[in-house]
Structures are given as C-alpha cells and as structure tokens.
Amino acid sequence: MKRIVLAAIVCALAVVSVIPCKAESLAASRMKPQVKVSRVHQVQEEKTKPDPWWQHAVIYEIYPRSFADAKNTGMGNLKGITSKLDYLKDLGVDAIWITPCYPSPQVDFGYDISDYQNIAPEYGTLADFDELVAEAKKRKIGIIMDLVMNHTSDKHPWFVVSKSSLNNPKRDWYIWRDGKTTTSSTKLQPPNNWQSVFGHSAWKYDPDTKQFYYHFFYPEQPDLNWRNKVVREAMYNVARFWLDRGAVGFRLDAITTLFEDPKLKDNPVLPGKNAYGDPNMQHKNNDRLVEVHDVLRELRRVTDSYPGERVLVGECAGKDIVELSCMYGKNADEVQLPMNFFFADINKLSAPLFRKEIGRWDTNPACGWPVYLFSNHDQVRHYIRYGNGKDNDRIAKLMATLLLTLRGTPILYYGEEIGMENNDPKSIEEVQDPIGKIGWPKEKGRDGERTPMQWTADANAGFSEVKPWLPVAASYKQYNVAVEEKDPSSILNYYKQLIKVRRENHALLHGEYVALNETDSNVLSYLRKSKNGSVIVALNMSGKPVKVRFDLKARGLSGRHTKVLLGNYPNVGESVDLTNVTLPPYGALVGEVKM
Ligand code: GLC
What we know:
With 595 residues, this protein is an alpha/beta fold. The protein has 3 domains: 9-153 and 229-495, Glycosidases (TIM Barrel, Alpha-Beta Barrel), CATH 3.20.20.80; 157-214, Oligo-1,6-glucosidase, domain 2, CATH 3.90.400.10; 511-593, Sandwich (Immunoglobulin-like), CATH 2.60.40. It contains 17 helices and 23 strands. Strands 13-12-9-5-4-3-15-14 form an 8-stranded parallel beta sheet. Strands 16-17-18-23-20-21 form a 6-stranded antiparallel beta sheet. The chain has a 3-stranded antiparallel beta sheet with strand order 6-8-7, with no helix packed on it. The longest helix has 16 residues, at 229-244. The protein is globular and about 75 Å long. The structure holds alpha-D-glucopyranose. Alpha-D-glucopyranose binds at residues 108, 111, 148, 217, 253-254, 315, 377-378.
C-alpha cells in the first residue's frame, strides 16, 4: 500500500517537475530546452473516474492483405476480417488495429495512400467497412484505423497537382526544394545529405519542374508539408471521416517524422554503413522535431470531440524513455498509447533485460499508461526471435504470460496466438517488400512476418484455394487455428485462458507492478499488487530448472502460498509454497496471493 501511495505522489509531483524532452531539444533555435510534463496516469485504485476502455483492452493487429480471404483472391479483404470476428471474440480481443486498407498503388503495401477516404477495391468497399464496424460492435470489438499522416502516395491527387507546376496551389503541400550545384559536377545535387530510411537519398529530382521533393520513406511516398495549415486541416478531416464511420481510434504511422528542419541542415554522419550500403546517419534534423506536439494536440482535440474515449496509438519508436514519455503530452493531451519497441528490440530471452525495460517503462516520467508488444508487421515474429528451436512452444507461452500480465495495454500481432513463425524469402526473386530488394541479402525485407494467417491444415493453410500473395510458413500443418482449437494444450488455448484470467482478475487489470527478486538472472518475477488481492508472476527465462524463493512480507503481503491461476507449473488451482518453488525450464507461474 505504501508503494501505491508513493507512486501516486511521484506522479503528482510530475505535475510540477521539469522533465527534459529530447523531442523538443532537436529543433535547437525554436525550442524551449525543457517542458513540464503533467500527471498522466494516477494509480488506478485512487481514481474516481472509470478507466478508459483502452487501458484494459487487448488490441490485435491485422495485416489485411494476409488475415482472411473471403473472396478466394489470394489476398485478404474486409469481408474476410468480418467472417473471423467470432474467432477474435472467442480469443478475447477488444479492438483490432487494421493496417492501411485504403486505395493505394501498394508500393509499401498500403502505407502509400492514394485516397484516404475509401477502401482499396482489392480489400472491398466502404459498405464492407460499415458492415465490419457494425458486426464488430455487436461483439464489443472496436476498429482502430491506421492514419498515415507523414506522407501520401505519389499517385495521390494532392501530389499529382503539387508536382504539375511550380506555382500550383498545392505546391506547398509537399517539401519541394532546389538542388545544389557543385564545382565538381554539372549534375544538380540533392538539397542536403538526408537519407531515406528505406535506402539512399531522401530527395527525388523532378525533371519537369527542376526541383527535388523530400521522402523519408520510398520515393513513391512524398512527405507532406505539416507547416502548411491547410494540409493539417485536410488530414484532420480524414480523421473525422473515419470517426464518423465508427472507428474507435487511430494508430498513427511514423508520427515522429512529420516535421523537418526548415533550413534543411545536414544530418550528422555516423561511422559504418547500413544494409543499403549508405553511411549510417543520425536523423537529427528530420525526426522528432518539437512541432509534432502541436499536431498531436490538434488531432487529439478532434478525437476527443467524439464520444466514447477514442484512442490515439502512436508509432513512436525511440530508445529514450523521456523522449517517449513526451508523446503523452504536457497535459496528457497527445497520444494515449505511445507504442514503443523496447520489447520488439530485445532479441534474446533475458530476465535482466526485460526487467530493466519494464521497470523504466512502468515508471516513465509522464506516469503514462504503458503499452507492450513483441511483434508487428515490421518485426521478425517473436516465436522465432526467442525460440531455441526445440522449446519454442513453451517459450511462446512464457512470453505470452509476460505480455498479458503486465500493467499496460498489450498489442498482439495476428498469428502470434497460434505460434506463427517467419517465412522469409529464400532468394531476391521471391521478395515483394521493396526494402528487401534494395537491401538484399543483408536486409531481406518484411515479407517473412506478413505471411497468410494459418487457419487450417489444408492447402495454403486454408487461407485461399488460389496461390496466396505470399507463401505460407512451412509450420502451418501443425500450427493453425483448426488444429489448435481442438488441442487443450495448444498455444492458442493458452492465449485464450490467459486473456480470460486477465479480464477477470482485478489485480491483473489494475494492480501496481512491483518487481521481485531483482538480482535473479534467470527468473523474471513481479507482483501485480492491489487492495483487492495480488497476483505473483514468475517466468523462468532459462533452459534449466531454477529454484526461487519469494519473501512477500517485505512487500506488505502476509501470504506464503499462492493459488495457481495459470502457467505450466504446477496445475491450476494447486497451492504452491512461495518459499520453495522450482520452476521448470521456461516455466511460467501466475498465482493469487493473500494480503
Ligand atoms: C511505418 C509502418 C511501415 C511503413 C512505414 C512507412 O513504420 O509500420 O510498415 O513501411 O511506416 O509508412
């Protein structure tokens, strides 16, 4: 209890404390060196207002091209998603985040949008979307749309007009600049040294108007000019369009990259080369500029003007916890769930590494509500990242236990609940994702983590009768929904039980996170402590049996035993003496403890 009060005081102090915001330190001349970060999250039990729904939701990411194909085209579609809503409901999902399903030339598989207010014909129609929203609502599942604000497709009518002449009214909607001349070459050089994160210069020359345009990602994804207020308003109208149609929120794509230094200062070059053969570079002058906070506040005012606590989930990659904390906003008025990649960047099973990341995120300076994920459409699936080749299923369950028992909102990636693995291309000819073509063989692209959902043991994993757009992973005969639904010990059934336990347990939803046995290098353990009972979680991240002893008296709990809620040691309902626990290799224990 003492710790609960202390945490509340720490969060309350944050209202008046001054926390440096690195995001704001990048635009040196235009910034205040420090900002005040206010109290965002107060310990749950001390609040009188009910928690917003998204704090206790399980969010499930769907890559629409690969999830379910109701039309037998070899590609997923919205009707396919609708047909699987009962499956998602049964799993325990509260909201689905659908990666872009708008009309697009599909250079970056939807992240290059040519019409923000429609559905790509290959995925369906607006009527299909309305049906999806209505059917999902019946099952209490919300739809989170992906909002790509940094760039459009080069085929978007806005860019087509912008490119058409130097003086058209939309020229300033994108970042157009003159090239540089040098004495050593007659060829015009790009305005500065900025590189695209997808390889090579971030500038593309347009011979018709003799200027360069800027693209942080592919040349087919020109960056919008967010200093132009008309651009902002156009994008907020896009948000209104989907909110009006029933979206419960947005996942904000690459949100930190909206602004660039107007003087286009060169970026610092770092030692070494990247997978594309370019010199490494710090994106000092074209990422995390202070102005992004104005936009986030404006957008939040738009979402807040709708009923039902609409949510903003941000793609806010960044190593620095202070920087990430700033994304909540000075007055908790920006992103509610800033996705970080702390877990996704951990590539080995290590109790100390996970303990450190959880600790710093759980006590983030903004006291913001944490969000956790292991995998997504840009990351190698964690079944492979943490698997050792022989205990993969056990490890998958161990990691699911971690994700679903932490204080915070978990985001699952489709297929992780059945133990899907990556199926990376074997040769450059097989690659679909352009970064795999540009960076082959060092960078194989992201096809491997985007393969079709494995529904059955039939051909093409039951995804479609025709050849799917990407080959299914070889593991599909054993790892698929139909087979796993029938097997009580499957990964799928473990996820279902975990989500159920989480949903029904007060401490798992509301309890404080208290790290235990912090010097243990094998077992990650913690309490979820609440006034109405607590839960202990112990996760053996090593391949050997480990003895552990918990002294909960020091944590204000008198109980010496725990009643098992879930895990693989021992059986559910059994009582375990916490002063003498032996966890099997990769063993997980989740149990209730008395006050
Ligand atoms: C985000 C998306 C990624 C996409 C990029 C450009 O990082 O997750 O898939 O390629 O933005 O839109």
